[in-house]
Request: fold
Amino acid sequence: MPTLLHLSASPRGAASESLLLADDFLAAYREAHPDHEIAQWNLWDGTLPEFGPTAAHAKMAVFAGQDLDAAQRDVWRDVTAAFARFDAADHYLFSVPMWNHGVPYVLKQFIDVVSQPGLVFAFDPASGYRGLLRGKKAAVVYSSAVYAPGRGPAFGSDFQTSYLEGWLRWAGVADVETIALRPDAATGDVAAGRSAARDTARAVAAAF
Reply:
C-alpha cells in the first residue's frame, strides 16, 4: 500500500497557516487515494534524535569506512531508525512556516539526522554526490507572515524554498510540488491569498 508521510515543522497547532493548508491537502488526498496510507510525523514531538558531537563523529567514521565505538553505535542506531521511518514512505508532504527567512530549526535538525552516507546520499570523488531517495515525490506547503514575492528587502528574503527544495533534489527527490501562502505584496494581507492557497493544496493533492 502506498504511503504518504506528512512531516510538520510548525509548533503552532490550530493557529498554524501551514498546518491549515496541510489539512486541506490531506483531506483531498484521502478522497483521491482512499487505498493509500497516511502517516504523520510532528517533528516537535520529541521522537527526533539529537545530532551532536557523537553523531557527527559517527557520520564521519561511516563516511571513512571506519569502525564505530559503543557510544557511536548507539547514536547511529537512532539515526538509522529515523531514516527508516522517513524512507518507508513513498510520498511526502512537508508543512513549513518561514522562520527568520529560512526554516524552523527542527526541520534543519531532521535533515541533519537523516542526511547520511549510504542512506540519503552516495558520494564518488570523481562524480560527486548522488541522491538515493529515488522514485519518491514531495509536496511542500510554505507559509510566511511578512515575506512575499515583490516586497522589498526590508520585508525579508526567501531562503525557505531554496533550502528545502535544494535538499530534496540533492537527496534524489526530483518531483516536488509547491504550495505557498504569502501575505499580499501590496497590503500585507494574508487572508487575500488564503482561499487561493487552499484551492491549490486541494488540486495538488488530487493529482499527487
Remarks:
- The longest strand covers residues 91-97.
- The helical segments are 17-32, 53-64, 70-87, 105-114, 160-170, 191-207.
- Strands lie at 3-8, 37-42, 91-97, 121-124, 128-131, 137-143, 175-181.
